[in-house]
């Protein structure tokens, strides 16, 4: 599949969506197969990748989740001040 993205923000959102899907599906599998070591390794790997991608997004474009809302920058709350992707924040 050759997908073209309008910009880096759009591509990163796409990647985060894929990573979220994988981690959720793996967590559901692990709910019924809690001793599957391979699945746990995959989950840990993709969960780490998801966290890194969300962190990268937050650093470049603002917080996407509350977990990535950074308040260390002069103590300002950026969560509500930037447009969310569904509000045209990716354009």
Would you kindly provide a written description of the structure presented here, covering whatever features stand out?
By secondary structure, the protein is mainly alpha-helical. It has one domain (8-87). It has 2 helices and no strands. Helix 1 runs antiparallel to helix 2 (37-61). It is globular, with a radius of gyration of 16 Å. It starts with 7 loop residues before the first helix and ends in a 30-residue tail after the last helix. The model has no long low-confidence stretch (mean pLDDT 84).
Order of helices and strands: HH
As a percent range, the share of strand residues is: under 5%
Roughly what percent helix? Answer: 40-55%
Q: Tell me the distance between the termini.
A: 22 Å
SSE class = mainly alpha
Q: Please state the average pLDDT score.
A: 84
Principal-axis shape:
globular
Give the count of structural domains. Answer: 1
Which regions contain 5 or more consecutive residues with pLDDT less than 50? none
With helices defined by DSSP (H or I, 4 residues minimum), what is the helix count? 2
What kind of oligomer do you see? single chain
Main beta sheet, described?
A: none
Chain-wise SSE layout:
Blueprint: H1 8-32, H2 37-61
Helix pairs in contact: 1-2
Compact description:
The chain is mainly α and 91 residues long.
